[in-house]
Amino acid sequence: MRISKKVWLIVGIGVFIIVLASLYTIYFREVGEREQLSESLSAAEALLPGLEDEREGLEAQLAQATSLLNTNQAQFPESVESIEYEDDLFEIAADCNVVITRLTASKPLNKKIGAITYSISSFAIKVEGSVANILEFIYAIRTGKDFRLPWSAAVTSVGLSIPGGEANISLDIYGYKGK
Hints:
This protein is of the alpha+beta class. 54% of the residues lie in helices and 26% in strands. It has helices at 5-74, 82-95, 131-143, and strands at residues 99-105, 109-113, 116-128, 152-161, 166-176.
């Protein structure tokens, strides 16, 4: 059977219309998608300056926090044995004209605060001397005066016997453990 030219023409026109309709649908779908992407790009470009400012602010805060952390870490030495603290305590006692008659140290404990670990050594000290010299010794320990090591001490209790010129002092010494 032979197909006439009219049928071929109708089939060709039908195929052409189907192809044209498909291209029309694809084209307008792409145009809609392009408009949507253009709107999204405009919105993102509008947000960009604010986000850049926020990033710069956060970077400045990070730099400030890092600087503060480094400053605070520099105030504490690496953890050291209590004998080094004891040497400093005897030197401070000699400078303040008091005599350490008893010195008891506890084993250093580690205390973690955030990402930083501190070594805490507790000491019980009995000193003899004049009340003024004992007070000078306590003040020197509390303020860090004459420390060879950059450690920090907190006087936790003081028992002072005025007629006898004796004092029982409890203190905690904090040292930075490092990373």
